[in-house]
Amino acid sequence: MFPHLKAFLTPAWAVDRKWQIAEPGECRPVISGPVLRALTSLCIIWQWFRFLGVVLIGFLGMLHPAEFLQLRRKDILLPQDSLHSEPVFYIHISNPKTSRFARRQHCKIDEPLVLEYVVKVFGDLPPHESLFGGGPSVFRRRWDAAFARLGIPTSQRQKGATPAVLRGSGATHLYLMSEDMAKVQWRGRWAQIKTVEHYVQEVAAQTLVSRLDPLSKQRVKAFEEASDYLLLNFLDVEVSKQ
After folding, report:
1. Segment 80-90 mean pLDDT
2. Domain coordinates of the chain in residue numbers?
3. Which whole number is the average pLDDT over 139-144?
4. How far apart are alpha carbons 62 and 185 in whole angstroms?
5. First CA to last CA distance, the chain
6. Largest CA distance in the chain
7. With contact defined as beta carbons under 8 Å apart, do 88 and 108 qualify?
8. What is the pLDDT of residue 2?
9. N or C: at which end does the chain have fewer Cβ atoms within 10 angstroms?
10. pTM to 2 decimal places
11. DSSP letters along 62-110, please?
């Protein structure tokens, strides 16, 4: 509203930087690949297919909750929509939280099994239908119920896994798989590489699994080990076409 005042804010930002050094904040924890696979098993057993689809998109697309909860079928560009054969799909982000990076944004997801899942669950929806089909409160209740079954806390007071951890978790996952910081920056739509470096280094050391009790770890491991079978069984028709 007052752009002419920007030049006078340098001292304020200097105070802010000094305060962050004296009282550093904490990044959100991250959920790792094993936790996501365990969640996949649980959601397939409970038949929460659309909920799981949105979680997978939020994780691999490094999206904010406000971004993936607003997605509609027309926001997904599947191979069947553009008649291309590559095993990738794109997500159009209508109101990106990082709009200062670019007003119009998209993310790319190139996991073949996730593509098959998204095609099966969302491919035949009408263009303007919401992917999840419920509001933020419904999504949060399902999120809390699923993670409670796995023995993973979900409250900020417990430094648990809130839906907001999906963005950082996806960034950390991609970095661990590729060690390509520029790729993480582009796909996560960060404006500066230094932000990504700090972000990934901070959250990579805060994986939730390391803080779980032995019983919860065993539960996550059991659900994770079943994920391949359950997912391939769910995708049986689509997988057999390849």
Report:
1. 89
2. 30-231
3. 96
4. 10
5. 55
6. 63
7. yes
8. 86
9. N
10. 0.81
11. T--HHHHTT-BGGGEE-HHHHT--SS-EEEEESS-TTTTT-SSEEEEE-
